[in-house]
Structures are given as structure tokens and as C-alpha cells.
Amino acid sequence: QVQLVESGGGLVQAGGSLRLSCAASGRTFSRNNMAWFRQAPGKERELVASISYSGRSAYYADYVEGRFTISRDNAKNTIYLQMNSLKPEDTAVYYCAADPVPFRDALVHADFGSWGQGTQVTVSS
């Protein structure tokens, strides 16, 4: 099972930017779609963005479309989430997750897992 370690969170003012990273273990990283989720206090965890195993396709939730960019570097076993124009409502713990099924077409589904420990993002107004 892949192990994931997130980093890059912090405190930023509204309108600012952060770049999250997620380092993955395992030799099959390049076969699996990856995703970023977030969970705010008192709310359920929600999908923010996902990226195909090749990096050619991506999905974004409506509330981050145009502000966040997901990317991956398969040579480094790492995915990224560039977050711009941050809003207070983006405050949450951000998690990366892996699709256990290799080479899957779908980027939105309930199977993402192998959760990391999360990284806190706090956006002040």
C-alpha cells in the first residue's frame, strides 16, 4: 500500500498563495490517479482536485476551478496543489489520496484512499 506524506500548509492572508506537496512511496506511483481532498471543522471531507496517472487530465471542484492547479512529477513520486487567490473558506486540513486501481479512466469516485496525515491550511480574512 502506498504511503503519502503531505507538506506545505500554513497560515496565509486572503488573496495569498500556497503550494502543497505530497510525496508517495512505492514503485507504481505512475500507474495511479491521485487526488487532493480537504476537510474543514465540522464538515465532511470533500474532493478538491484529482489528476490522472499520466498527468494529462485533471478534475477540479467548482469552488476551486480557476484558482487551484493540481500537477504531478512521476519521476519524483510527488503531486502538488498550487493554490492561488485563497479565501477564508479554503481553510481546512488538506489530504492527498491515491486511487488503488491502476490506469483508471474516472477521476471522480469513492475509492481514493491511502490517506496521508494531512496538512493544515489557514486563510485569514
Short synopsis of the structure:
The chain has strands at about 5, 10-15, 20-25, 35-40, 45-50, 60, 70-75, 80-85, 90-100, 120-125. With about 120 residues, it is mainly beta.
Summarize this structure as a short list of keywords or feature phrases.
125 residues; mainly beta; six-stranded mixed β-sheet; four-stranded antiparallel β-sheet; 10 strands; globular
Discrete helix count: 0
Please tally the β strands and state the result: 10
> What is the end-to-end distance?
39 Å
Task: Please list the strands of the largest sheet in the order they lie side by side.
Answer: 2-10-9-4-5-6
- Which runs of at least 5 residues are low in confidence (pLDDT < 50)? none
Please bin the fraction of helical residues. Answer: under 10%
Question: What does the average pLDDT come to?
Answer: 95
**What percentage of the residues does DSSP assign to strands (E)?**
35-45%
Q: Give helix and strand order, one letter per element, not per position.
A: EEEEEEEEEE
Radius of gyration, in angstroms, nearest whole number: 13 Å
Shape: globular
Largest sheet: 6 strands, mixed
Structure class: mainly beta
